[in-house]
Structure formats: C-alpha cells, structure tokens
Amino acid sequence: MDLVGSFSVDWLPEKYGNSCTLGGVVTRKGVCLHSGVETEVTLCPSEDFGFYVSWMNDAESPIRLKPEQVINSQLCTTLVLGNHRLSTVEHLLAAIAGCGLTHVHIIVSGNEIPLLDGSSIGWIEAIEEVGIIQLDAPNNLAPVLKKPLMIHKGSSVITATPSDSCYLIGMIDFPYPAIGKQHFSLELTPSSFVKHLAPARTFGFKDQIDHLIEAGLIKGGDLKNSLVCDGTSWVNPPLRFADEPVRHKLLDLVGDLALVGLPKAQILVYRGSHALHAELADSLSKDFL
Ligand SMILES: [Zn+2]
Predict the structure, then answer these.
(1) What burial class does residue 142 get, using C-beta atoms within 10 Å of its C-beta: 0-12 exposed, 13-18 middle, 19+ buried?
(2) Ligand 1 centroid – CA 272 distance (Å)
(3) Is there a catalytic annotation at residue 274?
(4) How many angstroms separate the CA atoms of 104 and 63, rounded?
(5) Percent with pLDDT over 90 in the chain
(6) What is the 183 CA–ligand 1 centroid distance (Å)?
(7) According to the model, what pLDDT value does residue 180 have?
(8) Burial group, residue 8, by CB count within 10 angstroms (0-12, 13-18, 19+)
C-alpha cells in the first residue's frame, strides 16, 4: 500500500481557527498493542467543546479529557478517567486534533485504543468517512502562550515560544545506524498533519521488543502495526518516509497536546517522550490559559 501522498485533503478545514465536529457517527475495531485484545471505538459528534470519553454499556457521564489525567506515559499515554483507565490514546487523539476537530465524544468498549496500523491514518479514514462540520464558533481550545516555556528531562528538551500559528520542530538522535539523527519541521495545519505526520507508524527496537514480550507487554504488537529496527536495518521495510521515526514522534506530540489543544506556538522537541509532551500539555493548561 503506497500511502505517501495518496490522501485527499480537500475535505479538511483549512486552518485550526474554527470549532469543528464530526458529520456523523463512525466505529472502528482493532487489536490493542499492550493487552492484545480487540476493542471498539465509536466517534460521535458533540455539542460540547473538547474531547469526551465514555464507556459502552456504562451509565457514567462522558468525561472531558485533560492533561492532568495522564498517569503513565512510558510506552504509550494512559489516562485515568473516573473508575477507568484508558491506554494508547495518542494516535487517535492526534488524528482528532490534527484534523481540526474540537467537539468529539469518543465511546470505547475497553481500556485501550486499538493500534490499527501503528499510525493515525486508520482514524483519519474513519473521520473522512463521516466528514467534518465547521461550527459557528471560534476554536477556544487552542491555548494562548504568553511567554516562552522550556521543560527538560535528562538530555531531552521541549520548548514552546509564542507564535501566530502552530509550528513543530522535531529532532531525534538514536544510537542505531538505521535511525541515527533525524529532524523534521512543519507548520501544522489539518492538511499538513494528514500528509506529513498521520501516516508515520510507531517504531520499536528488536532487543527491547523481546524484553517487552517476556514482561507480558505488547501482546498485540506485530510486524504489521509497528516498524521494527534491529540496529543497522529495518526488519519490516519499506518505510513510508525515509524519516518516518521523527515524523511519528511529532504525531505523538500532536496526540499528547490534544489534551489541552494545539497552541499557537513554535514547539521544538529534542529526544521527545510522552512524559515530556505531557508536562508541556500540563504547563500549557495551568499557566497559560
Ligand atoms: Zn506513537
């Protein structure tokens, strides 16, 4: 399947300036990376600003997603929502926020979001199927950054500086020759997100994956939903982009920022991680709204 450049983007809003919801209800099923079980996700239009989650067959009212709900972000982003936990939310949230949606209700059947092909494209296709409706309201979801912000953890750093649009600059540096140093930058718009970030798949390293399998994690991981690197080469080529790993890191960043909204800021991230992204989202929601 040749994905690169094959997506139509004319159905997307031009910018993130307006509020948008879905044109209908759409459901996807799939296997989850960590638990290995199949779950179902239904995306519904919402009248309320923000992204809400509720569980199928559960009377609890939908819970609005916020950065302070992140509890575990080592391998994926996990949220605590009332009595439930919800893992691996980042690729779905990236698709929703990246497309420009601001009003969405997500109904889930389990505690993890399906991985689909390891990128956001399956969710983009679901959203395209029902379309996007622009609402008659500005997008108040975008946090306004008043001054520069910098967060670092060890050798990783993320900075955000005020800007008139959302610009992302990603840099990675892995000790594996197959990846090495990569950088990618773009002005984020719904169409640039779909073309340049959404198809980039999650990736892992063969030696670490063996340990994760032994530890009972990544039960649903296989060579169809993650790129696997053995150090000098890729176990399951071809890549969709030569720099697919750094693009996927930016996709994860968009998913983690979706918890607060895509800010008008230039965000630079070096050796990013979900934990670093979550701290930025948290700071944006606490200090700058
Ligand atoms: Zn990811």
Answers:
(1) buried
(2) 11
(3) yes
(4) 11
(5) 74
(6) 17
(7) 96
(8) exposed
